[in-house]
Design a protein that fits this description.
The chain is built from 5 helices and 9 strands, in the order E-E-H-E-H-E-H-E-H-E-E-H-E-E. It is an alpha/beta fold and about 200 residues long. It has one domain (about 5-190): 3-Layer(aba) Sandwich (Rossmann fold), CATH 3.40.50. The strands form 2 sheets. Strands 4-3-5-6-7-9 form a 6-stranded mixed sheet, with helices on both faces. A 3-stranded parallel sheet has the order 1-2-8, covered by helices on one side. Helix 4 (about 110-120) links the parallel strand 5 (about 105) and strand 6 (about 130-135). The termini are far apart.
């Protein structure tokens, strides 16, 4: 017998592979829209690992969200943070050293945003007065940072429930099941984003 498999949050098995996902293009759109609406025009992205499909989807979404608004995303404004605290910190130091540093940074996840916050503190930049930071996931650390982190919530419980229900349907041999389920994400505004400095 074939063992049923459901991929969660990253679909590497092609369009026919049963999967439960979030729309990573839309995640970037939500982040850029929030920052743009606050007045930011120099927006950078600390991406995840370049080997990750999710990272590429978010980078593509980030670029197209800016282009739709008539802005361009320079390559030096997209830095790999490898989805980790240390990577986020190193990437933010790199962005802050640019001749024209960003006024806002969209981080690929909350862990890299935590590193970005630390880099800002180390370089004397105040968040959100000097620079705004937004993450993705809405993990428990997002409410514990100083300031609390604005983030895009990926509803983990809903994702898990959908994956289990899909697996159960597959095991029971149910016909006509939806094999690609996209769970909506949500912007959660906290204290790490504000209008850019005048």
């Amino acid at each position: 017998p074939v063992m049923p498999v459901v991929q969660v949050l990253e679909c590497t098995g092609g369009p026919s592979m049963p999967s439960v996902l979030t729309d990573d293009h839309k995640v970037s759109e939500q982040a850029v829209t929030h920052l743009w609406d606050l007045g930011h025009r120099r927006i950078a992205h600390i991406s995840g690992s370049k080997n990750s499909l999710v990272s590429w989807e978010r980078i593509t979404g980030f670029r197209s969200a800016l282009e739709r608004r008539g802005a361009t995303s320079c390559n030096d404004m997209i830095v790999d943070g490898n989805y980790c605290h240390e990577g986020g910190e190193a990437a933010m130091h790199k962005l802050l050293s640019l001749d024209l540093p960003p006024t806002a940074v969209f981080c690929a996840n909350d862990a890299s945003a935590l590193g970005a916050l630390r880099a800002c503190r180390e370089s004397g930049r105040r968040v959100p007065d000097d620079i705004s930071i937004i993450g993705v996931d809405d993990t428990s650390i997002a409410t514990m940072t100083d300031p609390p982190l604005t983030t895009i919530r990926q509803p983990r419980a809903d994702i898990g429930k959908a994956a289990i229900n899909l697996l159960i349907d597959m095991v029971r041999g149910k016909r006509d099941i939806e094999t690609r389920i996209v769970i909506p994400t949500q912007l959660v505004v906290r204290g790490s984003t504000a209008p850019p400095p005048a």
